[in-house]
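step: validate -> pass
step: tokenize input -> pass
step: predict -> running
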Amino acid sequence: MCRITTSDPSEIAGIDQDLLQDFVRIARSKRVSPVLALGGWTGSRFFSTIVATAESRTKFIKAILALVDKYDLDGIDFDWEYPGHQGLGCNAVDPDDSANFLSLLQELRKNRSNLELSAAVATPFTGPDGNPMTDVSEFANVLDRVELMVYDTWSSKTNVGPNAPLRDDCAPSDFQFGSVHSIVDQWTQAKFPIEKLVLGLAAYGHSFTVSPSSAFNGSTRSLNTYPSIGGPQPAGSSDTPGDTSKDPCGNPYGLSGVFTFSGLVNTGFLDERGNAKYNYAIDGCSGTPFLYDEKSQVMVSYDDAKSFGLKGAYIADNNLAGFAVWDATGDYNDILLDSLHSAIGISACD
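step: predict -> pass
step: emit ->
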């Protein structure tokens, strides 16, 4: 991942040369195509500015191709979060972002026809009216694939819910914020081929403070679905309480409450086989698990081997292009990846 940290289209800064060279070397030794992602949540501030004019797009393409040639890359993945609407909070945004992005991709494809081009996306690209486009077929002509970031979908500030639901049409209407089923449907209805869709999965979850009276369904000790949030944000597996660092917009990061799957093991929420050591339930609608530690009053919405298996089966049954995981280092002893590979019917790489 390389963040776009300047509005100068001729400069792609912040590259760890040794790390990138090692990545390419290891990828090629495993017969894997090395692809570099540009952007990310904190690295998309200047995408809009860089693609705004024909002149700046040409300069940006020249910089991209110089990077590709220098490091022997097979492709570029654009992780612009997001064309046409705000992401981090201080990103440059323009109603013509998606049109300008398409022009960039078309020119890049014309300059280097064999370069793998992909994009990390949520809903279909935003049109000038601020709504998802209903026809993205022109993007399909220049992109080899898009990765659907179907995680961090939960938007309620008052209730706990799934981080990465398989489906949400069975949830109460107030709690339908997007799911694998709904996002795939949006893209295919917008004329993007399903065989070019890559399903993005999360090797992490989010934590919430929930009182026992809200967490449990009466005296049954079964966990409630969508319990009320009852306290401040708990610290996640990588959080440092008291950290005063700030994001690129100048806002304090604060506590994220994020637990990687491996973090749940290392902090004692899960055992080394990935099984919950506390109260546990699978939400039948979203197909994702929740666990709850009554003593700390922490509830975590996350993905485990079962939910990864369900998503793997969906990929296979619907002929999607494959999967992407953010990120694989969050797994523990390949528990999630092994379940995913098994469900899809593929062998894991060595």
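step: describe -> The chain is about 30% helix and 15% strand.
step: cleanup -> pass
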